[in-house]
Structures are given as structure tokens and as C-alpha cells.
């Protein structure tokens, strides 16, 4: 049971209640074990509200000062881990208010003037999401910085690009990794877009219909760094679509991290042997002494499941809710906190694993050197000689089958041999299938030719710098 006496608790509920809450219900409905993560936002909201009450004359200046001082002290205690949260007081809002009352006495009773926990929690959450979105952007920027550094080292590292996990066409490793730069850039953009929508203050919406008191919503909005008060009090207390957006952006970013992680798992296997994950980012087996396991990327891949689950959880909580506030909405918090923490952790360890990764360039090149990977180039050589593509595709298909049946190396076929399949072949396979040439010929915008990749690296660095400047 709670540490607070019954009196304190029932007083917060007011005179309506004659019985204390059943202990099972108390435990069932309490959220303070997790919503204490909102403490600093709750205090900021309360301080802004108290100051506004002073400004409008709803509460005397002297009382406001005592309230604000009391809230600041509580904030310091929470930050220092000295604050005893009490399950019996349900949530962070009641914990703070009840402690304030214990500490400063009667003036505490004026803090909740014109306010409901409904607009209070919506405000807390909006403030929380602004910071969580910024933190996600910062984590993504950090990871993209590491990715760019590693990509710069590997402009001339060539590996097979894959489709269907079958070797498809050779690419530069820098090009491969820059694909993730694009994904993670869009991920950061999603968090930035969300922040632009977190610009309205719910405070002053009351339980659902505002207040009869002359509150100054513009004042509290300004104090909390919002552009203005929210436009509809019912929307303010009932909606959680910004939380959904956060969870969605987090789930998408986690899926991208998961794909990247999955490649590290594959690439570090003996079958691929493309990379070695640093000891600091691997673990051993308790049984097999030879093992070094890619647990870090595996966990990142696994944790993407939580992020997806968290999004689905909140979507499901919201879908059948009538306006406005329903207690179901309390279920928004754990998914949000979990996704924020999971994404933050995964961004950090992914950056670390990538920064310390050893790339086995010769293994990659060996895998990319199979002339079969350039069968498309043979077909395109014919197209350049004015052969229709479908015909060229057919011819090269036959060539490939011929090599397979007769155990021949496609790259070893002479000009003569090629001409046996089509008279338009302009040279022998050794010339048409040279790896460097094949890479250099892929020079369209977005391609893997050396200059294109260099340009892409420079352009990516510029975008990252611009973003960082905007944030500064
Ligand atoms: N702990 C609650 C939540 O997270 C705060 C709002 C409670 N409001 C209410 N009317 N019971 O949603």
C-alpha cells in the first residue's frame, strides 16, 4: 500500500469519494512507475500554468512564488533520485501535486485551477515528444556521420550487389552504404516533420471543453515554447496522432536499422566473410570456444519487433475510442517510452559497431569478380550495336546456359566464340566484362561509377552539415 496517509490521497480526489480505492485497483491503474519519465515536462507545464495564474490574477503573486519554488524543489529531488514516488497516488501528476501540498500547504491547492489531468498529460506528452524526436534526429545524424566516414574509406572496395540474396551486379561498398544514408536521412526527416506538428499547446483545454475561468492560453503556450494554443480543446485531450507518428517514424527507422544489422550478421558469417565485427561489439558462446557471435546486430534486428509492436499497440488502443479522453489513453505511454529508448540504444550501438567494423576487401572483390555478374553488360553491349534488348537478353541467356552446361568461364569467351552467338558482339568477353569498366559505365545519376559515388559522398556530407547548422 501507499506511504501517504489516506487523508492526503482522498483530499486530492475531493469530497465525492467516501471509500479509499481498492488496493488491487490502485495497483492496476497506477502509472507512476512509468509516467515518472514525464516528470520534468510535468513540472515545466505546472510552472508555466502557475505563472499564468499569477499573471491573470487568478492566484496571488506571493502564492505563485511559493508554488513555483516548491515545484522547482520537487524537480531537483526527482533529478537527484531523492523523490519517493507513490503508487497509491496513481500518476506523476498526483505525485507532484500531493507532495507539493505536503511541502507548501494551502497554496498548493490553487495550482490545479482551470486545469485537468487531461490537458496536463497531453501537454506533458507533447513536450516529451518534441525532445524525443530531437534525440532521434541527433542519433540518426551521429550514425550517418559514422556511415559517411566508413563509406569514404571504401569507394574502391567492390562487392556484389544482391537481389533475392543472389549475386546480381558489382557495386562499390560506398555506394551500398550510401543507400542507408538515404534511408536514415528520410528517417530523420520524419522526426523533423513531426516536430513541426508539435507546435500547439494543449494546456487550457481543461478536461475537454476549456474553462470558465479567464486563463491565458497564449501565455502558457509561449512559456512552453509553443507557437500558440491548440485550436480545439476536444482534439487536444483526445488525440494521440502525434504519438502515433513518433511510433511510426521510430518503427520505420528501426526497420532500416534491422536491415543494416541483418547484413552485418550475414556478412560476418564464414559463408560471406565480408566483414569482422569488433570484439567489443560481439559476444562469445558459453559452450563453443571458437564462436564469436554478432549479438549486437542480432539484437538490433530483434528489437525492431518491439518498435513495430509499439506502433500497433497504440493504433489498436485508439481505434475505437469515442471523444474525448478515455483512460485507455494511459496505455500510450509505455510504447512511446519503449520505442524512444529502443531506437536511441539501437542507433548508438549500430554507430559503434559500424565505426569499429573491419572490412575484408579482398573477399568482397573476389565475390564480385564472377563474370556472370556482368551478363547484363554483355546484353547492353549488343544494344549499343542496335540489337533490340529482348533479342540481346535471349542471346546472353543462351550464352550463360552454354557456359554452365560446358563448365566454361563466361569471362574467357573469345570474340570469335561470342560472335558464334551473335554477329554484333563488338569484342571478346575479357574486354566487355572487365570489372572496373563495368563499374565506370554505370555513370547515370545515382549510379555506382567512381565519380558518381564521390559526388554522392560530397553531397551527403553537405546535407548532413546543413542539417546540423539548422539545429544549432
Ligand atoms: N495517468 C493519466 C493518463 O496517463 C492521466 C490523465 C488522467 N485523467 C483522468 N481523467 N483519469 O492518461
C-alpha Rg (nearest Å): 31 Å
Q: What average pLDDT do the residues reach?
A: 95
Q: What strand order characterises the main sheet?
A: 1-2
List the secondary-structure elements in sequence, H or E. Answer: HHHHHHHEEHEHEHHEEEHHEHHHHHHH
Which ligands, by name, code or SMILES, are bound?
A: arginine
Describe the structure.
- The protein is 61% helix and 5% strand.
- The chain is mainly alpha-helical.
- It folds into 3 domains: 3-14 and 21-113, Orthogonal Bundle (Fumarase C, Chain B, domain 1); 118-367, Fumarase/aspartase (Central domain) (Fumarase C, Chain A, domain 2, Up-down Bundle); 370-441, Ribonucleotide Reductase Protein R1, domain 1 (Orthogonal Bundle), CATH 1.10.40.30.
- The strands form 4 sheets. Strands 1-2 form a two-stranded antiparallel ribbon. Strands 3-4 form a two-stranded parallel sheet.
- Helix 8 (173-197) runs antiparallel to helix 11 (241-267).
- The model has no long low-confidence stretch (mean pLDDT 95).
- Bound molecules: arginine.
SSE layout:
Layout: H1 6-13, H2 23-29, H3 32-35, H4 39-55, H5 61-79, H6 92-104, H7 117-153, E1 158-163, E2 166-172, H8 173-197, E3 200-201, H9 217-223, E4 228-229, H10 233-238, H11 241-267, E5 275-276, E6 283-284, E7 292-293, H12 295-319, H13 333-355, E8 358-359, H14 361-368, H15 375-384, H16 389-405, H17 415-419, H18 429-432, H19 435-440, H20 450-471
Parallel strand pairs: 3-4
Antiparallel strand pairs: 1-2, 5-8, 6-7
The structure holds arginine.
Amino acid at each position: 500500500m501507499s506511504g501517504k496517509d489516506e487523508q492526503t490521497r482522498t483530499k486530492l480526489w475531493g469530497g465525492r469519494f467516501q471509500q479509499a480505492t481498492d488496493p488491487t485497483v490502485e495497483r492496476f491503474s497506477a502509472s507512476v512507475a512509468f509516467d515518472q519519465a514525464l516528470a520534468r515536462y510535468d513540472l515545466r507545464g505546472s510552472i508555466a500554468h502557475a505563472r499564468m495564474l499569477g499573471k491573470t490574477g487568478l492566484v496571488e503573486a506571493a502564492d505563485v512564488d511559493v508554488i513555483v519554488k516548491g515545484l522547482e524543489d520537487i524537480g531537483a529531488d526527482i533529478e537527484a533520485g531523492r523523490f519517493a514516488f507513490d503508487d497509491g497516488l496513481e500518476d506523476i501528476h498526483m505525485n507532484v501535486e500531493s507532495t507539493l501540498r505536503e511541502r507548501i500547504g494551502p497554496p498548493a491547492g490553487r495550482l490545479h485551477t482551470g486545469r485537468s489531468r487531461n490537458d496536463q498529460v497531453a501537454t506533458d506528452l507533447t513536450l516529451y515528444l518534441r525532445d524525443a524526436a530531437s534525440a532521434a534526429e541527433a542519433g540518426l545524424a551521429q550514425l550517418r556521420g559514422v556511415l559517411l566516414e566508413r563509406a569514404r574509406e571504401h569507394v574502391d572496395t567492390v562487392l556484389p550487389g544482391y537481389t533475392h540474396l543472389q549475386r546480381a551486379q558489382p557495386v562499390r561498398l560506398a555506394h551500398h552504404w550510401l543507400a542507408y544514408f538515404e534511408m536514415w536521412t528520410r528517417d530523420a526527416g520524419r522526426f523533423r516533420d513531426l516536430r513541426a506538428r508539435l507546435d500547439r499547446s494543449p494546456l487550457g483545454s481543461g478536461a475537454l471543453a476549456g474553462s470558465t475561468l479567464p486563463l491565458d492560453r497564449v501565455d502558457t503556450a509561449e512559456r512552453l515554447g509553443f507557437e500558440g494554443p491548440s485550436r480545439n480543446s476536444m482534439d487536444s485531450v483526445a488525440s494521440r496522432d502525434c504519438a502515433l507518428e513518433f511510433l511510426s517514424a521510430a518503427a520505420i527507422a528501426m526497420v532500416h536499422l534491422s536491415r543494416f544489422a541483418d547484413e552485418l550478421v550475414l556478412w560476418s558469417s564464414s559463408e560471406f566473410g565480408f566483414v569482422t565485427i569488433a570484439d567489443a561489439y560481439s559476444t562469445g558462446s558459453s559452450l563453443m570456444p571458437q564462436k564469436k557471435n554478432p549479438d549486437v546486430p542480432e539484437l538490433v534486428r530483434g528489437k525492431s519487433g518491439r518498435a513495430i509492436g509499439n506502433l500497433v499497440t497504440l493504433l489498436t488502443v485508439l481505434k475505437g475510442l469515442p471523444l474525448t479522453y478515455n483512460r485507455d489513453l494511459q496505455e500510450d505511454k509505455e510504447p512511446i517510452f519503449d520505442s524512444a529508448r529502443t531506437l536511441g540504444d539501437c542507433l548508438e550501438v549500430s554507430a559503434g559497431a559500424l565505426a569499429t567494423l573491419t572490412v575484408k576487401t579482398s573477399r568482397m572483390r573476389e565475390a564480385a569478380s564472377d563474370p556472370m555478374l556482368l551478363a547484363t553488360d554483355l546484353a547492353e553491349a549488343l544494344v549499343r550495336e542496335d540489337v533490340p534488348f529482348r533479342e540481346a537478353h535471349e542471346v546472353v541467356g543462351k550464352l550463360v546456359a552454354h557456359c554452365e552446361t560446358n563448365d566454361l568461364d563466361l569471362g574467357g569467351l573469345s570474340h570469335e566464340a561470342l560472335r558464334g552467338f551473335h554477329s554484333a558482339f563488338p569484342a571478346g568477353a575479357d574486354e566487355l566484362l572487365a570489372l572496373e569498366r563495368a563499374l565506370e559505365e554505370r555513370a547515370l545519376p545515382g549510379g555506382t561509377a567512381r565519380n558518381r559515388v564521390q559526388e554522392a559522398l560530397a553531397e551527403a556530407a553537405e546535407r548532413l552539415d546543413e542539417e546540423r547548422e539548422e539545429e544549432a
